[in-house]
Amino acid sequence: MYRGHLKRDLQEWTRKGLIDEATAGRLLADVDARRSAFSVGTVLVMLAAVLIAASVLLLVASNWQAIPRLTKVIGIVALIWIFNLTALLARSRDAERLAAACLVLGAASFGGAISLIGQLYHLSGDTFSAMLLWFVVTAISAALFRSGALTVMAGILSFVVFWTVIDRFDYDFRWHELASYWPPAAAVVLAALTVWTRTNPAKHFAYLLLLCWCVWFYVLGDDLLWATLMTGVGAVVFFAFALPASPLSQWRGKLGASVTFYPLLLAFIGLGYWHGNAVDGQTNAILAVLVIALCLVALALEGRDNGAVRFLAYIVFALEILYLSYETIDSILGTSAFFLLSGLVVAVLAFLVIRLEKHFGRRPTEVQP
Q1: What is the DSSP string of 41-68?
Q2: Pick from 98, 124, 150: which residue ends a domain?
Q3: pTM of the model
Q4: Could you say which of 74, 109, 124 is where a domain stops?
């Protein structure tokens, strides 16, 4: 997607005479030469690794009786060593795709070994402990090998561990249990791995873990205080990174669009929870004003440069309008008046924003020597 946009921009700049064709070709070649460039071969290699890993795990799960116990243990341990040593050899020869696939297979084999040994020797323990051990070893391997593939696998395993925590506590949150605080701890580990392995997309696992942890409060607490707190926290974090005058705004470019997207999503979830518990038209009207105002402010601050925030604001705005269409405010005429007032306010804001954009667009920019 990025390459396609860049190619169109380069063609347009070449047509306007801003750059020559040779420069455009070199820029596009530089993008293609990067490791992050899309490759069908990489996708196929990883799919093959996932399928083979699934076959290993299913073989272990079947606990095939035809294989002697000692042979099973030696075989699964041998697989772990073979895959990891093959990854080292492949990396020494710059075969990064093969190395990533072997590391994934090695991590999957380790998970199979945990399950197999537990089956064969009837070891006591729960699913949470097994999944936690699998995650810890995978995270350590990701750090040692600086592997993006293992970082992604650790992110997936973090959600598996989180699910075992929820199932272990019968979907209830227990303040006195350390396992209840697994998501923020895992998010810190994943964030560190993302930076260390330079696997930028893996940061979404950390954000999603924290978001799911907060939603867990919403679902179980059934308390408007939590909804208010999470809405406030989400809004404060969003404005802290989105406002140009904020000291944290300089980190916005380094951390990417997600640092404002997920807090905004958290704030909208809290407002949605309030909507679901509103019992009168006046409360719905106040919440509608807050939601629409937050959408407009988000578009004004992040709409131009942050596609994720822009899309989220559009979706929430449309859902809010649809919701108000069904939940009339006192009467149909009241709803009509609210829509009319909202439309006029948005129209005035649009007029002011357009005027400001034209005003700043006319200002000449000077290139400093």
Answers
A1: HHHHHHHHHHHHHHHHHHHHHHT-TTS-
A2: 124
A3: 0.75
A4: 124
